[in-house]
Amino acid sequence: MVCIRCKMVVKSELEKLGLHYISVDLGETEIMEEISPEQLTHLSIALKKTGLELMDDKRSILVEKIKTIIIELVHYADEQIKINLSDYLSEKLNHNYTYLANLFSEVKGTTIEQFYLAHKIEKVKELLVYDELNLTEIAWKMHYSSVAHLSNQFKKMTGLTPTHFKNLKNKRRSTLGNV
User: Fold this and answer.
1) Is the pTM of this model over 0.90?
2) In terms of domains, do 45 and 88 share one?
């Protein structure tokens, strides 16, 4: 799950099945009672119709947790983490970062850092399109050391300067699920 609407869909489907949840977070749901095999099948079918799926493979679940933490950090958190990303992920997931990085690369075919940077650039695109902040403010908000650092990374990832991107009439952005 990578969005608020996904959480709403999961809550709705759980309620339809008469299941009570303790929490529904991005990528993880805790249910109060035991779920029967029949309920699990119905939930799985209902979620697949909306483009979501149940996961029970521990490795896939861990990769989804990594993705969720990064998405929440980049798109929904206002505060900067006080430690580097590798330490942050290790601390949040109680796993060695080398293990997390190797697993993520094996399953997703990209590194955690590339995934993180891709989401940061998508957020920068969003902020450029909204046109509420100037480039200096965006660099500060997105925790870049300077406008030059942001501009260099943006150009490397998109082939465009932030200013050129902002001036494009057709401001195309990827959906979070496609990043």
Assistant:
1) no
2) no
